Amino acid sequence: MNTGVIILAAGSSSRMGQSKQLLPIQGTTLLVRAVHIALQLQPGHTVVVLGSNEAEHTSILQNTNVHTVTNHTWQNGMGSSLKTGLQYLLSLSPAIDAALILVCDQPAVTTTYLESLVQHYKPSNKSIVASFYSDAPGVPALFDKSLFTELLNMDDAHGAKKIIQKHIAATELIPFPEGSIDLDTPEDYQRFINSNK
């Protein structure tokens, strides 16, 4: 199966007070860690969507083989970045069967976990395979190409979750309680660092 990966990394990290993408974690940064995980899964078709702090983020990705695209309207919301990433991914590989969407601030995500989402895709005969945590579906999530047009026409302000909720009957939910760990604030980050010493 020909799967592409889109890493959404365009936000300004306003609640963190600094670029979360540049935060040190496990000997690298949050953004580079997410890129390495995605490249191990899909080395040919991984796209990072940049926006705020584009120059700094581009510089730390120079030694990776990832494709980058800039969302110049990133302030409009997560949907805007998702559409930018999907459009670029399709320009690179029009024949992809599915797109896997992830963010860089979920430190529990691993290549093995992403592989499990892909492995559930075909046997499930579902259009979406999504993570399930905090009593709700979310990313990382894989979308079949049958939903690409809908994703490309979604509201700028809303992310993938709205599409998942609309098509919940066609969604395979994968329990991922660790997905609730996301690093949005300095307190989140410090708590994570302290728990992994």
TrEMBL record:
The keyword Transferase applies. GO terms for molecular function: transferase activity. Residues 5-167 form the MobA-like NTP transferase domain. Signal peptide: none annotated. Gene3D superfamilies: Spore Coat Polysaccharide Biosynthesis Protein SpsA, Chain A. This is NTP transferase domain-containing protein. Transmembrane segments: none annotated. Keywords: Transferase. CDD domains: GT_2_like_f. It comes from the Bacteria.
